[in-house]
Amino acid sequence: MYKIESPFVTMLQTKIQNTETAIDEVHQSLLFIGEYIAKEIIGHEFVKNADLVTCEDCMFHGLTVLDKPSLIISSKEDYDYFAKGVSNLFPNCKRGYIDFDYVDGREITKSLFLPGIGRGERIDTVIIAKSVIDESNIMSLLLKKVVEKYIPKYIIIATAFYNKDCINRLVIDVPKCEFFVCDDSELNHQKEKYLTHI
Questions:
Q1: Helices H, strands E: what count in the chain?
Q2: Which fold has domain 2-195?
Q3: What is the Cα–Cα distance from 12 to 25, expressed in whole angstroms?
Q4: What is the rounded distance in angstroms from the CA atom of residue 82 to the CA atom of residue 29?
């Protein structure tokens, strides 16, 4: 699990958790956090070494971005804010969402938008972008549907707020996942009630 430490992100988290923050500012803060996490994902998972000759005829050892066919999936609530922020840094990615609801204490799929892929086309990496992970059952269902449809080589889970127990259960259920989380964003019951306006 990679923990992102940044005063900028902490400031955005504070805005989101403040019940006096206007809803437009909450949405904008979620978008900005999504973009910040995407930069960290690219820097750790989507770069390779690159050697080139500069205009002064010197060798330069640097990095270049890998062009991996990617898909970003979110809940419907995150689609236009947190997940959009993540996808802004992946201009050629496909996007989709799954909307869950509860009926008689069970999670059911309320609506579903998963983009199709062409013949011979393959999704290399799936990024699950969910601003709050506080329910491991929903995440497990989401992961199951994504894996069944796309059979990706890599799965990355990105979140701004999380419940540690849920993350631990997901690590057991899907051990090959990479997690990118914001530091100091672990939820407890006191915090969870302040996130209902997301």
A1: 6, 11
A2: Rossmann fold (3.40.50)
A3: 9
A4: 8
Which of the two residues, 163 and 108, has the higher pLDDT score?
163
Sheet-wide strand order for 125-129:
2-4, 178-182, 154-159, 125-129, 70-75, 94-103, 106-113
pLDDT at 101: 65
Whole-number Å distance between alpha carbons of 148 and 140: 12
What's the Cα-to-Cα distance from 30 to each of 33, 39, 54, 122, 127, rounded to whole Å?
5, 14, 38, 29, 16
Q: Of 52, 47, 95, 38, whose CA–CA distance to 67 is shortest?
A: 47
Is the pTM higher than 0.90? The answer reads: no
Percent over 90 (pLDDT), the chain:
41
Q: What mean pLDDT comes out for the span 140-156?
A: 85
